[in-house]
Amino acid sequence: MRYRLGLRTALRALGAHKLRAGLTLLGIVVGVAAVVAMVAIGQGTRAEVLRKVESMGTNLLTISAAQLKFVAGRQQQAGAIAITLTEKDARAIGDEVPSAVAVAPAQSKRLPVKHEELTTTTTVVGTAPEFQVVRNFRPVAGEFFDEEQERSSARVAVLGQTARLDLFGNSDPIGETIRIANIPFEVIGVLETKGLDTSGQDQDDQILIPLRTALRRVFNLTSLGAIYVSVHDRAGMDEAATAIAGLLRERHRLRTGVADDFTIQNQSALLAAQAAVSGTFTLLLGSIGGVSLLVGGVGILAIMLIAVRERTREIGIRRALGARRKDILLQFLIETSLLSVLGGVIGVVTGVAAGQIVSLVTGWPMLIPWAVALVAVVFSALLGLSFGVYPARKAAALDPIVALRME
Q1: What's the whole-model pTM score?
Q2: Which domain holds residue 356?
Q3: Residue 81 φ/ψ, nearest 5 degrees
Q4: Number of domains in the chain
């Protein structure tokens, strides 16, 4: 009964001081909204980065010709020309590394491509049929080239979505002829949309052709730019990378102490690194929101102290009429708790709405962390209760005679 009376009294008190209650609410709303919105954007960005890494292939090892260095987050070859990987290396990996499920050799180059009067410059990738399994590139129309077309150096092509739009618009390209470096190719398939990779490159802006066709008829090369290897399971990727490195060093006759003339990138390591960076980013954003929530708690403390001073005569009258100290204490704690919980709920709704708006404007992905939202509401309630204890105790400690004399 006492709690019900305290709740009614608290609601009347808040309704009588709408501006003050609104200002108190505002601090909590801003804090909770900041936490929810920032963590939602951080979690969404993390999920998108992980999705892009995983879309590159399943349990993927990427072997690049020559040593690679990283400049401004982008990989570059340390040497001017890399001719250290060959088709024989790729076959040796498939034959001698037991954990290698599939191997896809590849070489690429940006070349002009023409269809009738339309011309574009895109990345032409010569590779093997295993590429669609290793790199997870599946055709949504037509088909991928097969082993027979690879062995016979067939002039067939599979288009990425960006290349398809540049050359054909919305029309069906299957069966049409395109010219790559002035050599005619028949379009036999169109790949599914992949989007940007982790380095910001458009994975759809490419055309895939059989490797032998690319090396002998288009690029006039005998070396590979990369070998993609799909490993049986993620736990064995480090072991597979070590085995491949040892095999390639032996095949390339590299003496002890001589640096590798290739680079092996481990998708699991990249995934872990990206997850760590994204997690740190999310934690940073959440911390900024947490500071805003703490500021809201300080606002509750300040405004409730002002409320105690303004309502000194009211407290004195209630004490004179028989209200006990714990009744006064309970009333002020209920007021702060109501403001905190209400502010938390409104803050969650505001944070979700703000995150959606930011996502629409910037194109950043958003993942609503309902667990974080619930924690933010609970934390705001505890924060309000904590910061409301001192004003409540101060109000309860007032001497009724002194309080009645206050103007």
Answers
A1: 0.60
A2: 2-52+273-405
A3: -130, 135
A4: 2
